[in-house]
TrEMBL record:
Domain of life where this protein originates: Bacteria
Domain Transposase InsH N-terminal: from-to ranges: 16-112
Designated name of the protein: Transposase
UniProt-listed InterPro entries: Transposase_InsH_N
Species whose genome carries this gene: Gluconobacter oxydans
Pfam family, one: DUF772
């Protein structure tokens, strides 16, 4: 097995693009930033003055819910597949060394949106 090189990830992503990565096409079609104002309003995050770990970006978390819906995934399976699949990471804007939300975080995000009436 050859040693990983600096450009291996970029080459793999280019290959995925060439094979017709549906999430990449979806990301070009949908402006997910357009959902940010509604997400911010529904979530009403604090200003962070009380400390604690900052929340994950709401658009990132919303895109995770989109992945779940498109693929009919549980929270646990979603966490695993985000860590495993380059196509999921690219769609979410995550790098290999970025922190990935765990299953509980995904569940809590969905619950907050549900309680706010933003989703059903």
């Amino acid at each position: 097995m050859k040693q990983s090189g600096f450009f291996d990830v970029e080459e793999r992503l280019a290959r995925l693009s060439g094979l017709g990565d549906q999430l990449e096409a979806f990301s070009r079609t949908v402006d997910f930033e357009a959902f940010r104002p509604d997400l911010d309003k529904a979530l009403a995050y604090s200003d962070g003055s009380k400390g604690g770990r900052p929340p994950f970006d709401p658009v990132l978390m919303f895109k995770i819910l989109v992945i779940q819906t498109l693929n009919n995934l549980s929270d646990e399976r979603t966490e695993y597949l985000i860590n495993d699949r380059l196509s999921f990471m690219r769609f979410l804007g995550l790098g290999l060394s970025d922190r990935v939300p765990d299953a509980k975080t995904v569940w809590l995000f969905r619950e907050r949106l549900t309680q706010a009436g933003a989703i059903e």
